[in-house]
Inverse folding.
């Protein structure tokens, strides 16, 4: 199993996402050397059937989740192996920096686990810890570290197994929105800073990147005190004061089209706050920059938002895809 990484494992044939409000899946095919979404499907989940959380059981109506998962996988070809996208809130994402990186992988693994165990909300022995190299600076090498409770990840894998699919890769939703942007026709330049705000039904994640490298990640639950605009303001302050940022080349808002209607006013307020504060237009996310849609697929905003993390996972290893 490969857990929670940015463009660090081979892409599967089908991607499936388990979110609090829906189950969705998609597959790609190649036409003239270009990726095209070949099939997609989605099924809504009733409130409370799946409640993503870091430390406890997530599935509260297993038959309903399994039924929705079986339905979407049936409609994308009944794959035996899938890449599984899980909500950001099932993992704790940290950035750690080391002045010197051990030459041996085992020593680096021990160093990373020692570094994150202090902030882990459960015993490190119960954790699945993975990491990928991040930004390299004069101060050392950063790593993006993802920590999840092993039992929670096994719970999500077990849902796939129950419908006959092996989840060979498990990854976070926002990481794969990032992958979709990086796989697009015009990805951000290597030295360009850009901001992604990813809105889900039950949380919002903010990611700051320098080219392909994550330099800041924060997650806010829907029931957290304060507004999305507050989170945007705090993040902009951190970027300017702590990261000495010179400005964003791009600002991208994902998930707004698929968000519950009651969240629309808060999302619109955050969008205006971003544009006013950063003096940069806010772009909607668009997976068509990375993979085309067939003529029969209507590109509604909600569908584009739902497809983005799926496309991102399927194209995470794009440079190895057929030309």
């Amino acid at each position: 199993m490969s857990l929670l990484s940015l463009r660090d494992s081979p892409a599967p044939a089908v991607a499936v996402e388990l979110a609090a409000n829906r189950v969705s899946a998609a597959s790609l095919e190649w036409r003239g050397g270009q990726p095209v979404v070949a099939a997609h499907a989605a099924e809504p989940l009733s409130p409370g059937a799946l409640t993503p959380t870091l430390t406890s059981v997530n599935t509260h109506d297993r038959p309903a989740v399994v039924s929705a998962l079986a339905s979407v996988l049936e409609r994308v070809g009944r794959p035996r192996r899938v890449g599984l996208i899980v909500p950001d809130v099932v993992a704790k994402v940290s950035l750690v920096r080391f002045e010197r990186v051990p030459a041996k992988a085992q020593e680096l693994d021990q160093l990373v686990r020692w570094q994150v165990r202090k902030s882990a909300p459960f015993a490190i022995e119960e954790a699945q810890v993975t990491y990928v190299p991040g930004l390299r600076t004069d101060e050392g090498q950063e790593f993006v570290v993802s920590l999840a409770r092993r039992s929670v990840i096994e719970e999500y894998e077990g849902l796939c197994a129950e419908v006959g699919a092996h989840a060979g890769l498990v990854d976070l939703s926002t990481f794969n929105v990032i992958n979709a942007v990086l796989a697009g026709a015009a990805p951000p330049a290597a030295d360009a800073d850009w901001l992604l705000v990813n809105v889900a039904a039950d949380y919002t994640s903010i990611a700051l990147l320098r080219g392909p490298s994550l330099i800041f990640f924060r997650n806010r639950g829907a029931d957290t005190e304060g507004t999305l605009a507050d989170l945007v303001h705090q993040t902009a302050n951190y970027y300017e004061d702590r990261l000495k940022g010179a400005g964003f080349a791009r600002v991208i808002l994902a998930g707004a089209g698929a968000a519950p209607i009651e969240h629309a006013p808060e999302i619109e307020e955050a969008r205006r706050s971003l544009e006013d504060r950063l003096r940069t237009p806010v772009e909607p996310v668009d997976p068509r920059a990375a993979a085309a849609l067939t003529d029969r697929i209507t590109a509604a905003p909600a569908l584009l938002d739902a497809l983005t993390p799926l496309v991102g996972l399927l194209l995470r290893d794009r440079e190895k895809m057929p030309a």
